[in-house]
């Protein structure tokens, strides 16, 4: 055996390397972190679904005598979430994707810890679940990105790894992959949205994290498609007016959402300057009340993620004509209220509503129109067309519509760029970067 080692020096070096704790410990910690993202994402999904179900049981889906309860529960829930976020979990507000983007730009580990930490993992999950329990129009997918990035960054600290930026990217991709059961979309999201300055050497980290998180999710939930399996096939030759309409109109509404969200959050932030907590709670209460009124007016359709409505549209059930406008407003108000929660699932529901309405106008299939509407609107909101069509393809299990969805996504993106030049998540990430800079300057001042 000794002679064999002398004959093959590379084998000797390989054994010595893997016998070193410095080599295998970081890898084990990284693998454990990726698996934990998958497990926690599944737990988060189960809690979120149960919270929504409890809310609908509480208010009575039959529109009976408890229809008024959202007027009490929803504003109080918004206020509770805003207070807990401000007092105990600062940095948990909003989607969570801007925090992960900001953390990749920050160089100091202490600055990153203010927006990515195990404390925020607990707070983000708990407050998003509370928000869904009180009827907020939010999703869990954006928060799962912050959760994944936080877990992977913590794994980097425990494992003594120095690739913090790459690991944040890997954790974010794993979060999206596990949240939707869409591994390809997780990778594309990492490249297009999270890593506008993507580094080739992070390829292995991203792929490994997505695979391990995906395996953990599959082990717990099995293989599934988020919106079931779509049987619709879009014939571009016959349905090109629908493709163009969903891309342009969906992208226009998506850009409008992004523009209004940015303007509103900036004005609210300036208004908060003198009395931050008191005014934050007032904004949350007013937004919660407005969300409750919209939810009651829509017959309860706009409460929660919108997953049920979007899936129904994909499967061929038309949505009410004004559902998309009501869900648009409910999602916008939930976002600017300052409570933790994402916009992925609500955006897909709005897009499905736009597509369903256009399908009825143009005499097209509801299922096909919903898919195209989701692609156009989502690409318009986040200005990430590749992520939009890949995630919709994987969520519906139908790859016959690649070209039509690509075109709708690109039209949505192009329309959005003409209306709003700032990608939503990246514009919001600058808020957290600016806060880190201000905190550093304040600490540097003499006491």
From TrEMBL:
The keyword Transmembrane belongs to this UniProt entry's keyword annotation: yes
Keyword Lyase: no
Matches recorded under InterPro entries: Cl-channel_core (IPR014743), ClC (IPR001807), ClC-type_chloride_channel (IPR050368)
Membrane topology designation: Multi-pass membrane protein
Single GO cellular component term: chloride channel complex
Pfam families registered for this protein in UniProt: Voltage_CLC
SUPFAM superfamilies from the UniProt entry: Clc chloride channel
Localization per record: Membrane
One Gene Ontology MF term: chloride channel activity
Record-annotated membrane-spanning stretches: 67-89, 116-138, 167-191, 203-222, 242-262, 282-308, 358-382, 402-420
Predominant location: membrane
Keyword set, alphabetical order: Chloride, Chloride channel, Ion channel, Ion transport, Membrane, Transmembrane, Transmembrane helix, Transport
Name recorded for this polypeptide: H+/Cl-antiporter ClcA
């Amino acid at each position: 055996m000794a002679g064999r080692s002398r004959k093959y020096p590379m084998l000797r070096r390989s054994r010595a390397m893997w016998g070193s704790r410095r080599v295998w410990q970081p890898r084990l910690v990284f693998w454990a972190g990726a698996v934990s993202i998958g497990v926690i994402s599944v737990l988060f999904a189960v809690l979120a679904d149960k919270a929504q179900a409890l809310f609908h049981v509480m208010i009575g889906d039959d529109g009976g005598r408890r229809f008024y309860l959202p007027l009490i529960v929803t504003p109080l829930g918004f206020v509770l979430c805003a207070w807990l976020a401000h007092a105990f979990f600062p940095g948990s507000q909003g989607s969570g994707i801007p925090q992960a983007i900001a953390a990749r730009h920050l160089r100091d580990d202490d600055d990153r810890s203010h927006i990515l930490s195990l404390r925020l993992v607990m707070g983000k999950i708990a407050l998003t679940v509370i928000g869904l329990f009180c009827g907020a129009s939010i999703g869990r997918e954006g928060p799962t990105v912050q959760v994944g990035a936080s877990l992977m960054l913590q794994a980097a600290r425990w494992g003594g790894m120095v690739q913090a930026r790459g690991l944040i990217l890997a954790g974010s991709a794993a979060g999206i992959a596990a949240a939707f059961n869409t591994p390809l979309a997780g990778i594309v999201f990492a490249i297009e949205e999270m890593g506008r300055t993507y580094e080739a050497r992070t390829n292995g980290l991203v792929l490994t994290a997505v695979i391990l998180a995906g395996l953990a999710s599959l082990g717990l939930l099995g293989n599934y498609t988020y919106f079931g399996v779509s049987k619709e096939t879009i014939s571009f030759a016959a349905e090109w007016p629908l493709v163009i309409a969903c891309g342009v109109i969906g992208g226009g509404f998506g850009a409008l959402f992004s523009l209004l969200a940015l303007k509103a959050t900036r004005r609210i932030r300036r208004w908060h300057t003198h009395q931050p907590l008191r005014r934050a709670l007032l904004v949350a209460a007013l937004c919660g009340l407005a969300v409750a009124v919209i939810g009651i007016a829509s017959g309860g359709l706009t409460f929660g993620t919108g997953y049920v409505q979007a899936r129904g549209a994909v499967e061929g059930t038309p949505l009410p004509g004004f559902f998309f406008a009501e869900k648009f407003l409910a999602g916008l108000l939930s976002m600017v209220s300052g409570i933790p929660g994402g916009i992925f699932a609500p955006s897909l529901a709005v897009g499905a509503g736009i597509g369903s309405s256009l399908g009825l106008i143009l005499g097209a299939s509801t299922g096909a129109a919903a898919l195209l509407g989701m692609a156009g609107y989502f690409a318009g909101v986040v200005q990430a067309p590749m992520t939009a069509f890949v995630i919709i393809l994987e969520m519906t299990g139908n790859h016959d519509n690649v070209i039509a969805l690509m075109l709708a996504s690109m039209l949505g993106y192009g329309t959005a760029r003409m209306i709003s030049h700032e990608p939503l998540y990246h514009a919001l990430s600058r808020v957290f970067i600016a806060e880190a800079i201000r905190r550093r300057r304040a600490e540097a001042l003499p006491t």
